[in-house]
Amino acid sequence: MEPHFHYYATYCAAYLAGYTHEESMRICWSAEFVDRCTKTVLTRIKAPLSAATSQLQMELMDMRTDVIGLQEITRIWSSFHFLPRDLYAEVKGPKRFRNKYRLLCGPNGTLVKDTVELAKGKGLEAVGVALHVVADTWAHTYFIGAPSLVFNSTNHHFFELIPDGNGVYEEKHISFRHNPGAPDDPANCLYLATLPSIYENSIMNLGHGRASHLPDYSYARYKYMPSWADHEVLYKDNPSDFFKAFCQMIYVMKYIRGEVPEFETDTYDYETVSPWESEIKEILERRQTYCGDDWKAFGEKLSGRTVEPFDIEPFVEEYIAAGDNSNDTVIGRFTGATLAQKSMVTNKIYKSGNLLAGYSVDYEENGLKGIKDYFRLIEKQVDEMSAGGRRGGRDGD
After folding, report:
1. 85-104: b or e for each residue (b if 16 or more CB lie within 10 Å)?
2. DSSP code of residue 162
3. DSSP conformation class of 375
């Protein structure tokens, strides 16, 4: 989802869920920081690099696409942006295909429940991290958090479905182009995308890069035929999905606040939203690539307070000034929450028999030492894979 949803819409959801203005600001700041917490930022403030939740384009360009590099990419993007829906999905095909298929993102999987339950009792920063992950399961459905030509590519059969106001949808062909100087042009269905690549593991094929920001836009309705689905036509209705995401986020926070005794997937707090439903849906349906101003105005209408724009600097200063007590700062608590989330998801992927995110280290048990020791396990895996190759192991098994 776009920053305006992770920040301003999350503020609105938090306030409707019963948090104060100040608490809502901390939650939405943490939700948005998930998209900005890169190794570059962490290096600057001397925070643990394993807490990275995103990667800059330049960082990705420098990444290796060998086993170790691909595992690191997958740990970040599958844990925070493309949470797998079903790690045990039944699907035919070679093991390499099955493992990537099981990383397909989607809402209401078991990992959503795990993510929400992990955040309970961990502070406002952990709430924000969980809300980012939950929201992205709706926007990023049908893509995976690993480089893959098979699962993340686009083709000529990609159409936007544009309502005419009378219940009829006009189909318009979408063109993806790589022209960094040209912004997305919804009026002509032209969207900026990563460079095409025929290589399965090219970083150009990470997530929905080949589909541009289209999956993140709340107004978008589209259909396409991905190769992994045997070219079956898949439909995506973002206005409907994003509304569900918003209502689910409120339900998530009411569970975390203790107002709901047990968290259940596929459950939404429509009742709390009902007085504002038409206004929220109007924002979601509006055909624009940035609706932050609309969400900001709505949030300020709800609380009667000013929702300040996202700003990292005050919390960077707090973190640096805290020195040995940095864990008890906003960024310190945020990095603690992200390390726990990444460890949990990696552990679940590993236990499913899927090594695309590498071997597992349990942060809850081992802390930062466990994260650092992770690389010993990676080296062990590489040695085992090399030995398997010398024994005549089959490629893709």
Report:
1. bbbeeeeeeeeebebbbbbb
2. E
3. H
Of 16-20, 54-58, 227-231, the range with the lowest mean pLDDT is: 227-231
Backbone angles phi, psi at 48, to 5 degrees: -60, 125
Contact 180, 256 (CB under 8 A): no
Across 300-315, average pLDDT: 97
Q: What are phi and psi of 38, to 5 degrees?
A: -105, 170
Question: Minimal CA–CA distance to 268: which of 108, 29, 81, 80?
Answer: 108
Q: Where are the beta strands (DSSP E) in the chain?
A: 158-163, 169-173, 175-177, 190-192, 221-224, 234-237
Q: Which residues contact 43 (CB under 8 A, 6 or more apart)?
A: 49
Q: Which two tokens stand for residue 274?
A: 């009902």
Between the two ends of the chain, the Cα-to-Cα distance in Å is: 34
Q: Cα dist. 157→184, 216, 292, 314 in Å?
A: 19, 19, 31, 46
Q: Which residues contact 38 (CB under 8 A, 6 or more apart)?
A: 52, 53, 54, 55, 56, 59
What's the chain's average pLDDT? Answer: 91
Segment 82-118, tens digit of pLDDT: 999 999 999 988 999 999 999 999 999 999 999 999 9
Hey, where are the domains in the chain? 3-147+238-390, 151-237
Per the CB < 8 A criterion, the answer to whether 44 and 30 are in contact is no
Would the pTM count as exceeding 0.85? yes
Please identify which residue in the block is written with the tokens 């600097």.
Answer: 313
How do residues 25-61 score in pLDDT, each as one tens digit?
A: 999 999 999 999 999 999 999 999 999 999 999 999 8
What would you report as the CA-atom Rg of the chain, rounded to the nearest whole angstrom?
21
In one letter, which amino acid is 199?
Answer: Y
Contact predicate 86/114, CB 8 Å: no
d(CA 150, CA 153): 6
